[in-house]
Design goal:
The complex is a heterodimer of chains A (331) and B (313). By secondary structure, chain A is of the alpha+beta class. Chain A has helices at residues 20-42, 47-60, 104-114, 122-132, 145-157, 178-184, 254-259, 262-273, 277-288, and strands spanning 5-12, 80-86, 91-98, 119-121, 188-189, 192-193, 202-207, 213-219, 229-230, 240-242, 246-252, 294-300, 305-309, 314-320, 325-328. Chain A contains nine helices and 15 strands. Chain A has an eight-stranded mixed sheet. In chain A, α1 runs antiparallel to α2 (47-60) and α2 runs antiparallel to α3 (104-114). The longest helix of chain A has 23 residues, at 20-42. Chain A is globular, with a radius of gyration of 18 Å. The model of chain A is unreliable at 162-185 (pLDDT under 50). Chain B has an eight-stranded mixed sheet with strand order 4-3-2-6-5-1-11-12. In chain B, strands 7-8-9-10 form a four-stranded antiparallel sheet. In chain B, β3 (91-97), α3 (103-113) and β4 form a beta-alpha-beta unit. The two termini of chain B are 28 Å apart. The chains are: A alpha+beta (331), B alpha+beta (313). β9 (229-230) of chain A pairs antiparallel with β4 (118-120) of chain B.
Amino acid sequence: MGKWAIALHGGAGVDPNLPEQRQEEAKRVLSRCLQIGVDALNLNKTAVEVVELVVRELESDPMFNSGRGSALTTRGTVEMEASIMDGCGRRCGAVSGLTSVKNPVSLARLVMDRSPHSYLAFDGAEEFAREQGVEMVDNSYFITEENIGMLKLAKEANSILFDYRIPLTGADTCSVSAGSIVADNSLQMNGLPISIYSPETVGCVVVDSTGNCAAATSTGGLMNKKSGRIGDSPLIGSGTYACDLCAISCTGEGEAIIRSTLARDVAAVMEYKGLNLQDAVDFVVKVRLDQGQAGLIAVSRDGEVTCKFNSNGMFRGCATQDGYMEVAIWE
Amino acid sequence: MGWAIALQGGAGDIPVDLPNDKRAPREATLRRCLDLGVAALKANRSPLDVVELVVRELENCPHFNAGKGSVLTTDGTVEMEASIMDGTKRCGAVSGLTTVVNPISVARIVMEKTPHIYLAFDGAEAFAREQGLETRDQSYFITEQNIERLKQAKEANRVQIDYTQPQPVKEQVPTSSEGDSQIGTVGCVAVDRNGNLATATSTGGLVNKMVGRIGDTPVIGAGTYANTICAVSATGKGESIIRNTIARDVAALMEYRGLSVKEAADLVIANAPEGTVGLVAVTDKGDVAMPFNTTGMFRACATENGHSEISIW
């Protein structure tokens, strides 16, 4: 019997001026979700069950950009996407364009387990959800006040934002000019100053005690995105990947992650170059990302776990069976 | 070194006794598209222009499963997807198009005119219209053969790669046009004299697919991939291509294991379930590979040193 390991993330690229209170809140959510995963692993749940469970928790909490608390499209609506992959057999499921499914990652799992396909989107995915009897809610359930404010700011800046959860110090969010913020801040992510940017995506990777690996990723996508825009999170090989060697979930600049097929590359480098997990992750983040900023979490079938990012911080947590448990934001 | 081009019109269970009235028009289209691509390369058009124009031609041909002639969803509608990528790894993808005549051109404009890589369904349709691309009513895309294929698939209660033989029935129906179902995908890869690479893939998907089903074609790394070493376009059963990250793996094997394109492509195909995939690939040095593990794959290629081929099995 091998040892289990788990990692989760709430997004890469964090404002260095994030108020202490917000940092603590985020770490509390990460700890709570991590504990849920740890408890499940101690009950011998499988890797796929655990990643789904943990990502459901992250989706249900409005703290991060997935499910409730998702970033808004340019029309002010929410369009969510997710994917899940079972390293055993490399089965996978993905969904995009969800507007009323309470837990996108669970629908992705149903696509994997109960449909003849791997990826369903928009109306077709919603129809499948209804047929499967999953919990559906009104689109307004996912929308938070903060994100409404952030969308206004994003439109002013006329840019794409991940999403902004950091209340601007002092002034009312809506009345602060995006222009002045743009002028002030030199640290950027996805073309925007980091103070009006906030990380997107949540994810979880697990290796269970039988050595099976699984990964799941979920997101609301980019703030102010065009309706219909799909990012890396539902794309197998980009935002999510699992095989018999390892499992990976990525976060950050979606377009950069897609171009570098980041998740698949970690596994490919292990498979084809014989690197171990850490070396593979280091290589891929350093060499494969080109100019992109991103982060990833990964586990190997041998019970190793690692997190790596070239962005300014990544909300993350990991735990192993021998008692190690940590949540962090910064390097 | 020199230019090279390869194109495919889909891999699948193409019967070796394919009647001539089914075979001839497809071979003629492959010939025409190959000639167009070669002429464009000789005229120093960029590989991106070349793969787009060849795939547009294949989309316009009703005998292949892309654009006009796309197979039908379970609702009897058409939902098309496509992607394009060049050696600098810029890429664009679309899914869920229902009225746009040339999905590959939408993918290119997503790549060149938006900060995004992938647009789908209503958003993609709206974007295509904003950009002034040609649209037609759904009926333009739907062919008799595909209506019949859908009917057969429903009767057999299965989802098919568009190319399958009808299930044998007691009273064998004399050869009807549906016996040679459409092929899975169309695609083109090209390299110019300077080693610049590009790939483009387009499809209507699987016969009787669920509405909203996305296959491998628009998933970068699965159906389509290019970097500075090679350009790949895959075809076959989408679900297998996604899980095996076919297109990316050809390049990864070359990069990380030092295999030639032929070795890498053969290995990737061999590792996928029998009867599910095929691909075309070119390298920056002008090498070409076109392996498949299905009965056949409609394909063609040409290189500057004079090699030229059009084949099915």
